[in-house]
Amino acid sequence: MTTSLPKIGKPATNALNNIGVTSLEAVSKYDRTSLLGIHGVGPKAIGILEDALKAKNMNFKGETDIEVPFQLTGDLSCDNAPKRENMLTFLINSALIDEDKLRTVLSEDVVWEVAGAFKIEGFDALVQELTEHQTNIASIEVKANISHGKSGAIHGTQTAENGSIVYFSDVFEFESHRKDAKIKYITSYVIMDEGEF
């Protein structure tokens, strides 16, 4: 189900319709600068669109209400999908090593396996592993965040402050199909730019 565009004026509506943007979901696929560059779409229309997006828990592409000490871009809209939100919460808070927030999305007996590197069991062991290998992060780009039933996956690129890049893909299994189900199994695939694990 899509959400109609708010009343942004005929010129702005026509300009968006001309590029195939007829819903708020379509607006969220564009960054605000690109939309401002379209003849007929001005700051007032952008402000109205931003308010409408926020009312539906969406943002312009590459923007988020999540406050983190690094740049966070990409597929950040959870579109009322709690499991997508949980995976994003895991990604962000494993980088920050925020135990309280991690505890809200991970089961106590969570299993984390990094293919070809290690397999650990339990929340405390996971936090210890994160702590021992903490990196100062400059940015994380989420390429995709998808969920279906008891499964989900998120992948993207993490850049450290020293310039090293990690390409990651995390595959998740949840405790159940319930919306509030916690993550019970994570399989991570990691490629570092130096070719090391």
Here the CATH topology of the largest domain equals Nuclear Transport Factor 2, Chain: A
**Which structural class should the secondary elements be placed in?**
alpha/beta
Strand content: 25-35%
Tell the overall outline.
Answer: elongated
Number of helices: 7
What value does the average pLDDT take?
A: 90
Low-confidence stretches: none
Strand order of the largest sheet: 1-4-5-6-7-2-3
Number of domains: 2
Task: Give the second-level CATH assignment, the architecture of the largest domain.
Answer: Roll
Secondary-structure element pattern, one letter each = HHHHEHHEEHEEEE
Q: Using DSSP, what is the number of strands?
A: 7
CATH class of the largest domain: Alpha Beta
Radius of gyration: 19 Å
Subunit arrangement of the protein: single chain
Distance between the termini: 42 Å
Portion of residues in helices? 25-40%
The main sheet comes to: 7 strands, mixed
